[in-house]
Amino acid sequence: MLALSQDAFDQDMEGGWRALANRAGCIPVAADLIRDYRETKQLTASILYWHEGQLRASLGATEHAIQLFGKSRHPKDDPFGWNLYVDATIAFLRKDKPALLNAREALARLPRPPDFDPRDAQGNAIEVSWPPNLHVVDGLIKCFEREYKDTYRGCRKWA
């Protein structure tokens, strides 16, 4: 796994770390694998912190997950609202509903960039709702009283 390219390791929805995480009882090992992959390759890609954080949060390691989610923030221009999504998720983990609702409202108000033109790997236009991740944040609100693992996988009907 450590020899895979970052794309194969992280973005293959049936391979990479996900193949391990989808095996019964292997989420802790998959979380450690993402950490080891990131450290071995000396990567600071925010998505690797995010995915490890998701696994840690699903295991109930809330403070560790919050730390990882914080490292996934985009340091500069954020026209797609990633940092607001991060804020909402951290607020959910902290059980801070006012902060979660504030992050949701800020995300919902985010203007769609005029050059927003999502494409698949073959260059074909794809339909993507705006803003990204608003449906996920709405699911966090809907399932606010549940644990992250239940909210992210079981309570919601969003992908």
Summarize the amount of helix as a percent range: 55-70%
Instruction: Catalogue the unreliable spans.
Output: none
Q: State the order of secondary-structure elements, H for helix, E for strand.
A: HHHHHHHHH
Helical stretch tally: 9
From the alpha carbons, calculate the radius of gyration and give it in angstroms.
16 Å
First and last CA, distance: 25 Å
Q: What is the typical, i.e. mean, pLDDT?
A: 92
- By secondary-structure content and strand pairing, the structural class works out as mainly alpha
Number of strands: 0
Write down the domain tally.
2
Q: Please tell me what the overall shape is.
A: globular
Percent of residues in β-strands: under 5%
Main sheet overview: none
Describe the 3D structure:
This protein has 159 residues and is mainly alpha-helical. It folds into 2 domains: 1-72; 79-159, no CATH class. It is 57% helix and 0% strand. The protein is built from 9 helices and no strands. Helix 6 (82-94) runs parallel beside helix 8, helix 7 runs antiparallel to helix 8 and helix 8 (134-142) crosses helix 9.
What's the layout of helices and strands?
Layout: H1 6-10, H2 16-21, H3 27-40, H4 46-58, H5 62-71, H6 82-94, H7 97-108, H8 134-142, H9 148-155
